[in-house]
Design a protein that fits this description.
By secondary structure, this protein is an alpha/beta fold. Helix content is about 20%, strand content about 30%. The protein has one domain: 3 Solenoid (UDP N-Acetylglucosamine Acyltransferase, domain 1), CATH 2.160.10. The protein is built from four helices and 19 strands. The protein has a seven-stranded mixed beta sheet with strand order 2-5-8-13-16-18-19, with no helix packed on it. Strands 1-4-7-12-15 form a five-stranded parallel beta sheet, with no helix packed on it.
Length: about 180
């Protein structure tokens, strides 16, 4: 395994110029292209999704188009629904619980970049994991930033930007997303 890929998998700063990472990206591109192609039947989409992602529970429905960085760092629990135009940047693990509802145009972004201009120009980046608990609902256009955990049974309103962890069973809205009330 190349040093940059090892560093990426360990959650350390790395430069994504590793040949193995390029190969992983080519693999992902081919699988996403096949998954997103018009006219693909449900069983074939399921087969592709199972090959693309790290783990896929039963009765998962991800509507195309769907885009990710690698795929193999994404785990999706059973009964989860992901609407059109999802972007999951899985430089770090993305763990999605069971029965999660994800609206259209949602972005789960684990990648972060250097604040230092020279290191950023050199391409340094790292990933910080994202976790969504069971029965989370992300409204359309929600952006979840690196390192965020959203607790079970939490709802995030459309267009919100989640920059920090949210507890179980709350409604959060806004940019940045703030808890507005507990849910029963």
């Amino acid at each position: 395994m190349g040093e940059n890929k090892r560093r990426m998998l360990a959650g350390e700063w790395y430069v994504p110029d590793d040949p193995e990472l390029r190969d992983d990206s080519v693999r992902r591109a081919k699988l996403c292209d096949a998954y997103n192609a018009p006219g693909v039947l449900r069983d074939e989409r399921r087969r592709i999704l199972t090959e693309l992602l790290g783990e896929v529970g039963a009765h998962v429905n991800i509507r195309p188009p769907f885009h990710c960085d690698f795929g193999y760092r994404i785990s999706v629990g059973q009964g989860t629904f992901v609407n059109f135009n999802a972007v999951f940047l899985d430089i770090a693990p993305i763990t999605i619980g069971a029965d999660v509802q994800i609206g259209p145009n949602v972005q789960l972004l684990t990648a972060t970049h250097e604040l230092d201009a020279e290191r950023r120009r050199a391409g340094w980046e790292k990933g910080v994991p994202i976790t969504l608990g069971d029965n989370v609902w992300l409204g359309g256009g929600v952006i979840v930033c690196p390192g965020v955990t959203i607790g079970a049974n939490t709802v995030v309103g459309a267009g919100s930007v989640v920059t920090r962890d949210l507890p179980d069973g709350v409604l959060a809205v806004g940019n940045p997303a703030r808890v507005v009330r507990k849910l029963e």
